[in-house]
Specification:
This protein is α/β, with parallel strands linked by helices and 145 residues long. 32% of the residues lie in helices and 17% in strands.
């Protein structure tokens, strides 16, 4: 599966260091492995991406990415703040990696370690059928109020 025509299909995994809620949340161990590994592996195992990129200011996250032989983008501290947006991360990665405007970017947050290759492929199929941006959500079983 590819993005169609000459369009590149890219997995972008943002892994900013410095979370205030849960320190080192992207590299914290879950079942003995850094959390980010689950997302990198799911992206690779989906076999649908032309390129998998990890964007981070965290040297440990970038080291893990290198162990999987995926591309890395050293993110500047100026877009690693609590107020930095996903759009800032995407724009920076597009510039650094010289991605063409036609590239389709799948933004895979490493804090969703239960997402697997099948989920990614299903989302890609849906994207191709509707040709509109997608965001995955889940309805709450209980209202917390």
């Amino acid at each position: 599966m590819n993005a169609g025509g000459n369009r590149m299909f890219v997995a972008l995994i943002p892994a900013r260091k410095g979370s205030k809620g849960l320190a080192n949340k992207n590299t914290i161990k879950l079942c003995g492995r850094p959390c980010i590994e689950y997302t990198i592996e799911a992206a690779i195992q989906s076999k649908i991406f032309d390129e998998v990129i990890v964007s981070s200011n965290d040297n440990f996250a970038l080291q893990i990415a290198n162990e999987y032989s995926v591309s890395t983008v050293q993110r500047p501290e100026s877009i690693c703040t609590d107020t930095s947006s996903a759009a800032d991360v995407v724009e920076h990665s597009i510039d650094v990696m010289s991605l063409k405007e036609e590239a389709v970017i799948c933004y895979l947050q490493p804090t969703s370690p239960l997402r697997n290759a099948t989920h990614i492929k299903d989302a890609a199929r849906l994207y191709y059928s509707v040709q509109r941006p997608l965001v995955s959500v889940r309805e709450a079983k209980e209202i917390p109020y």
